[in-house]
Design goal:
- This protein is α/β, with parallel strands linked by helices.
- 37% of the residues lie in helices and 15% in strands.
- A 4-stranded parallel β-sheet has the order 2-1-3-4.
- Helix 1 links the parallel strand 1 and strand 2.
């Protein structure tokens, strides 16, 4: 079993992009992450590249994109950052909201702390998804 985890923040420039990259480096088999924003910006926050490089993750070209009903429909899980009420219909039933601050007005040390908090939460989510897949796996006869 597997599926898609969709990370959604307001602009798809910082938290959702970091979370997508972090999840995809540790995703359980069959799982992958995507990200989007409820009001996507024109470019990701350039500090994201530095924050990921510091922990050995390279991010390829990434352009913010708006969350669509089709994305919500395809996703097995939706993780939002304070914007669940602005997501398309269907998100609420498969969502969890993470109260993590955005990048605006933060210094580099604060941004690293946010990255580290996201990394912990993404790791916990990956573990939960992995356990769910194991629990739903084929049963063996004793």
């Amino acid at each position: 079993m597997g599926g898609i985890v969709l990370f959604v923040c307001v602009e798809n420039t910082f938290r959702s992009v970091l979370s997508e990259a972090l999840f995809n480096t540790t995703a359980p088999p069959g799982w992958q992450a995507e990200s989007a924003g409820v009001q996507s910006a024109t470019a990701i926050n350039p500090v994201v590249l530095d924050l990921l490089q510091e922990i050995g993750i390279r991010l390829g070209p990434k352009i913010p994109r708006p969350v669509t009903p089709e994305m919500i429909s395809r996703a097995s899980r939706v993780v939002t950052f304070g914007c669940l009420d602005r997501c398309p219909i269907g998100a609420k039933e498969k969502a969890e909201d993470w109260p993590i601050p955005g990048a605006t007005g933060r210094n580099m040390n604060e941004l690293r702390a946010i990255r580290d908090q996201l990394q912990r939460r993404v790791g916990e989510l990956a573990s939960r998804l992995s356990m769910t897949a194991t629990a739903k796996g084929p049963r063996r006869k004793a």
